[in-house]
């Protein structure tokens, strides 16, 4: 009975583009939303995750770029408390990971410095449609790592070690925080007709390039033998933003986090190249009757990995 209730609830969520109700906390919803976005690769999965709050409409880009910039800054500064809560969540994951490697007092100092820097970074976050763009959750979650990586980098910690920290902490977060029934539903919906329709619609929407800092991708019909369907990304919002923060060497590690999500859900996705690793596109190919994916770490287990920025 409990399982049927959960499934029915998830079907209702799907009808509302996975708009989570107030019974799920905003923080849990944000994490889950980011996971779902990575899985589905489309705009319409989540409309937002604020508890018991009406959703504000997305900002429509005006002809005046300066006005858009002002509106975008306002969008994020109005949500500063929520974003800082999300940073604290990520920082908690990072602290747990670093505790086995470094002195506790050092870790506290690093994370305190990172928190200050993240608050300063909030007005600079790129605007890609706000609550109307589910991929916005991925952008926000990964942005929390930016000041942490900068602080650790300044402490002499290598690119690979920082990259491993990103991958391992997100892997643990996805595996432990996504409820089992949501994993079941997402795995099923990956290959459902309605899920595919959403992906096609999202791809067409992305190609309008409404927001220059956003993702751009196309839907690829399956070949009938090696994969069921695909998503090919030609532009990546994470790559754009992390390059703007002088952290391009960490983008390949962000790519690896996709495998953490896919492994948590239990589906197989083939990918031979990514924008973050220097290719001209990311070629996601989804396989319905696949055998799963290897762990996100080590990176050498993935064909896409080039190691071009390792140090």
What does this structure look like?
The chain has 311 residues and is α+β, with helices and mostly antiparallel strands. The protein has 2 domains: 2-177, no CATH class; 181-301, no CATH class. It has helices at 2-15, 26-40, 65-77, 80-98, 104-121, 135-143, 145-154, 159-177, 180-189, 193-206, 237-244, 251-265, and strands spanning 216-221, 229-235, 268-270, 282-287. It has a 4-stranded antiparallel sheet with strand order 1-2-4-3. Helix 8 packs parallel to helix 12.
Gist?
With 311 residues, this protein is an alpha+beta fold.
In terms of topology, how is this protein built?
Elements: H1 2-15, H2 26-40, H3 65-77, H4 80-98, H5 104-121, H6 135-143, H7 145-154, H8 159-177, H9 180-189, H10 193-206, E1 216-221, E2 229-235, H11 237-244, H12 251-265, E3 268-270, E4 282-287
Antiparallel strand pairs: 1-2, 2-4, 3-4
Helix pairs in contact: 2-6, 4-5, 4-8, 5-7, 8-12
Give structural attributes.
alpha+beta, 4 strands, four-stranded antiparallel β-sheet, 7% strand, disordered N terminus, 311 residues, 12 helices
Question: Which word captures the global form?
Answer: globular
Mean of all residue-level pLDDT scores? 82
Domains, number: 2
What is the end-to-end distance? 53 Å
Task: Report the portion of residues in β strands.
Answer: 5-15%
Q: How many individual helices?
A: 12
Gyration radius over CA? 19 Å
Show unreliable segments. 3-26, 29-58
Helix and strand run: HHHHHHHHHHEEHHEE
Largest sheet: 4 strands, antiparallel
Helix fraction?
40-55%
Trace the largest sheet across and list its strands: 1-2-4-3
Number of separate strands: 4
Structural class: alpha+beta
């Amino acid at each position: 009975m409990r399982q049927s209730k959960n499934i029915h609830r998830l079907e209702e969520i799907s009808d509302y583009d996975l708009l989570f109700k107030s019974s799920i906390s905003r923080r849990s919803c944000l994490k889950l939303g980011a996971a779902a976005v990575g899985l589905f690769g489309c705009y319409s999965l989540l409309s937002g995750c604020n508890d018991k709050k009406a959703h504000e409409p997305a900002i429509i880009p005006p002809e005046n770029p300066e006005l858009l910039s002002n509106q975008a800054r306002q969008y994020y500064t109005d949500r500063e408390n929520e974003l800082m809560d999300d940073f604290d969540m990520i920082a908690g994951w990072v602290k747990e990971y670093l505790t086995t490697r470094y002195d506790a007092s050092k870790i506290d100092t690093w994370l305190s410095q990172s928190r200050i820097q993240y608050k300063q970074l909030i007005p600079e976050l790129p605007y890609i449609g706000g609550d109307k763009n589910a991929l916005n959750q991925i952008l926000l979650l990964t942005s929390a790592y930016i000041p942490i990586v900068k602080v650790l980098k300044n402490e002499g910690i290598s690119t690979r070690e920082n990259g491993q920290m990103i991958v391992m902490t997100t892997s643990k977060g996805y595996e432990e925080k996504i409820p089992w029934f949501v994993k079941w539903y997402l795995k099923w919906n990956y290959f459902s007709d309605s899920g595919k329709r959403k992906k096609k619609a999202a791809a067409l929407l992305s190609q309008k390039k409404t927001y220059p800092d956003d993702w751009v991708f196309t839907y690829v019909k399956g070949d009938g033998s090696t994969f069921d369907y695909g998503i090919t990304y030609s532009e990546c919002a994470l790559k754009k933003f992390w390059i703007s923060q002088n952290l391009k060497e960490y983008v390949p590690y962000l790519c690896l986090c996709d495998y953490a999500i896919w492994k948590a859900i239990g589906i197989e996705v083939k990918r031979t190249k990514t924008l973050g690793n220097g290719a001209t596109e990311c070629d996601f190919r989804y396989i319905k009757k696949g055998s799963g994916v290897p762990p996100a770490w080590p990176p050498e287990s993935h064909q896409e990995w080039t190691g071009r920025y390792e140090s």
